[in-house]
Write a structure and sequence with these properties.
With 270 residues, the chain is an alpha/beta fold. The chain is built from six helices and nine strands; from the N terminus they run H-E-E-E-E-H-E-E-H-E-H-E-H-E-H. The chain has one domain (2-269): Rossmann fold.
Length: 270
């Protein structure tokens, strides 16, 4: 693991040797956020040693280096999911690499389905906590003390000071926000009606197929995290409508302007 990380980092540094201050993981349908970045270098995942390759529509599959709101950043345009057949170790490998490239904060986004009946399509939800029991923990297996402790504390996986900054920005910009607990499942199936009800009973507000493994890994390495979900579908429905991936991508695209405002302003303030 440590050798693989070192080889990936060395490869990237030969192409781009600036130290990024922040890492951003862009979720489904949020790829056009990269237009906000003053791009200095793009590196396709397929070129980076030991990197997986995105296979999902809406994930372009490259690392983007540049400047945003006066900060050097690196953005993951496309992420990896358990349902693609990747191991947990492969899914979180890029997060490890970003840490060793020098980032000191990680910003994560995703498209999620609402289970909270007060949520609607297009809402932006600050993730205040998560439930990970329904997806594999990426820290199972050998622990490398160079990466983090064997038993990392998860009492505050999403940093309150970052959450408070975004809430203040939203109030100033008159952007409505939701807050809630994100539940990660493996996918690739969207949940049954009974599963949505179970997740609500467990205390979840939104459900998705990503993010939690990345966040656990970031916390393991001491990286502060802020994460936001774009609510792209509503799970507990009274009608007989079905959910499609195309509708999820469109809903994320529609919510993107406010997402951009909040993340750009947060970066400017860090």
């Amino acid at each position: 693991m440590l050798q693989k990380i070192a080889e990936a980092v060395d490869f990237i540094k030969k192409i781009y040797n600036e130290k990024p201050a922040l890492g951003i993981v862009l979720g489904s349908g949020l790829g056009s956020f990269v237009n906000e970045i003053n791009i200095e270098k793009e590196i396709p995942y397929k070129d980076i040693p030991h990197f997986p390759v995105s296979t999902v529509e809406g994930h372009s599959g490259k690392l983007i280096f540049g400047e945003l709101a006066g900060k050097k950043i690196v953005a993951m345009a496309g992420r990896f999911h358990y349902y693609e057949g990747y191991s947990s170790e492969q899914i979180v490998f890029p997060i490890r690499v970003l840490k060793f490239l020098g980032i000191d904060t990680l910003l994560v986004s995703n498209a999620a389905g609402a289970v909270n009946p007060n949520f609607k399509v297009g809402d932006l939800m600050i993730i205040t906590d998560h439930i990970s029991q329904l997806s594999p923990n990426p820290l199972i297996g050998k622990n490398y003390k160079e990466l983090g402790p064997r038993f990392p504390d998860m009492s505050e996986p999403y940093k309150k000071h970052l959450i408070n900054k975004v809430k203040a920005i939203a109030a100033e910009k008159n952007i409505k926000l939701k807050e809630g607990v994100y539940v990660a499942v493996t996918g690739p199936t969207f949940e049954t009606r009974a599963e949505y009800k179970m997740i609500l009973t467990l205390g979840g507000d939104a459900v998705g197929m990503s993010t939690v493994q990345e966040v656990i890994t970031a916390v393991h390495m001491g990286l502060p995290v802020f994460a936001m979900s774009v609510i792209t579908d509503v799970g507990i429905r009274e009608d007989d409508t079905v959910i499609t991936h195309e509708e999820v991508l469109q809903a994320a695209k529609d919510a993107e302007p406010n997402f951009k405002i909040l993340i750009c302003e947060l970066i400017a303030q860090l």
